[in-house]
């Protein structure tokens, strides 16, 4: 199948709605993290485990709390079906996901980078490990430690967090900042007051509002640009894990640079995405090429 056909499939996907295309992007990032956490078991990496459905022997990562709002699996299924019909057992689900991620970012105005191909699909998944993703409540030291544990560095933390230039988060992931921050009985003082009022009305202090949504970049929510970094400097980061990038002098400096120079952000984002998508990949005789992305062969 020509890459232009994959591209056409993704275009159809775009017509299905903005939120779907964002999923792949997010999923890719989580996928790599998820799988590398299980490095000890030597079956971790970017190997498409997040795509697997539950089976009789394990509960898949789709059940994990950080992945509950993830959707769009049908898009990957459609691309896979078309590929299998013309070129069976050749392109892995993991490669499809990686390509779709790059296309999705590019569709919404982001950079384009060279994707290395040849990943194979894993033969396991772990909901427990998926729950071990970086948390939105973490501070800079904890975030850096989790990235470093996967072979990434401080710069990767800052530039990949720029992925939050698009998409939405559920109230439960930032509500702690709105009413009783760290047990003070007051909102997080590092949150812009106009944004805080808007968020308090979207996310009233009651359980029923947990799954309401707010944009991660309230200024240009559907555009992949460097506004995320400008927002941080205006105290308009949505998650605690976003705003924490300003609490360390070296990460704050990178935030300043990326906010000033969109082309530097675009270049570095592509580089870090390549790095992340190469974590713990399966090649050669390891893993398999799934026929159906939702189940192992
Ligand atoms: C630094 C560690 C990270 C943390 C703590 C984090 C946390 C989160 C959280 C809590 C959400 C909202 C989830 C929900 O409410 O369902 C989210 C959404 C999102 N994240 Fe991250 N994330 C991180 C890194 C990344 C990276 C590396 C990327 C991509 C390069 C990324 C891209 C996205 C996107 C695009 C969304 C929006 C998804 C949607 O609209 O459904 N995140 N993230």
Automatic annotation (TrEMBL):
It catalyses: 2 a phenolic donor + H2O2 = 2 a phenolic radical donor + 2 H2O. Heme b binds at residue 164. Disulfide bonds join 93-293, 171-203. It comes from the Eukaryota. GO terms for biological process: hydrogen peroxide catabolic process; response to oxidative stress. Substrate binds at residue 134. Residues 45-297 form the Plant heme peroxidase family profile domain. Keywords: Calcium, Disulfide bond, Heme, Hydrogen peroxide, Iron, Metal-binding, Oxidoreductase, Peroxidase, Secreted. InterPro entries: Haem_peroxidase, Haem_peroxidase_sf, Peroxidase_pln, Peroxidases_heam-ligand_BS, Secretory_peroxidase. Its EC number is 1.11.1.7. Ca(2+) 2 binds at residues 165, 217, 220, 225. It is an enzyme of class 1 (oxidoreductase). Belongs to the peroxidase family. Ascorbate peroxidase subfamily. Belongs to the peroxidase family. Classical plant (class III) peroxidase subfamily. Removal of H(2)O(2), oxidation of toxic reductants, biosynthesis and degradation of lignin, suberization, auxin catabolism, response to environmental stresses such as wounding, pathogen attack and oxidative stress. This is Peroxidase.
């Amino acid at each position: 199948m020509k890459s232009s056909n994959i591209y056409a499939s993704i275009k159809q996907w775009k017509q299905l709605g903005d939120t779907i295309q964002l999923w792949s992007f997010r999923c890719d990032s989580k996928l790599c993290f998820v799988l590398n956490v299980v490095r000890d078991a030597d079956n971790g990496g970017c190997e498409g485990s997040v795509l697997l459905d539950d089976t009789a022997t394990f509960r898949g990562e789709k059940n994990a709390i950080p992945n509950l709002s993830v959707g769009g699996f049908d898009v990957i299924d459609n691309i896979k079906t078309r590929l299998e019909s013309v070129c069976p057992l050749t392109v892995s689900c993991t490669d499809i996901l990686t390509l779709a991620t790059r296309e999705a970012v590019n569709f919404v105005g982001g950079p384009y980078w060279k994707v290395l191909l040849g990943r194979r699909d894993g033969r396991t998944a772990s909901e427990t490990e998926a729950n071990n993703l970086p948390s939105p409540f973490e501070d800079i030291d904890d975030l850096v430690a989790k990235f470093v544990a996967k072979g990434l560095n401080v710069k990767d933390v800052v530039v990949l967090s720029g992925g939050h230039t698009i998409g939405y988060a559920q109230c439960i992931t930032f509500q702690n900042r709105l009413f009783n921050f760290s047990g003070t009985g007051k909102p997080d003082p590092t949150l812009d007051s106009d944004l805080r009022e808007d968020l308090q009305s979207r996310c009233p202090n009651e359980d029923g509002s947990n799954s309401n949504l707010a944009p991660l970049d309230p200024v240009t929510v559907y555009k992949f640009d460097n506004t995320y970094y400008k927002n941080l400097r205006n105290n308009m980061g949505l998650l605690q894990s976003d705003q924490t990038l300003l609490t360390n002098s070296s990460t704050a400096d990178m935030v300043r640079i990326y906010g000033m120079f969109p082309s530097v952000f675009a270049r570095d984002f592509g580089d870090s995405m390549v790095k992340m998508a190469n974590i713990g990949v399966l090649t050669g005789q390891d893993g398999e090429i799934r026929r159906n992305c939702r189940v192992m062969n």
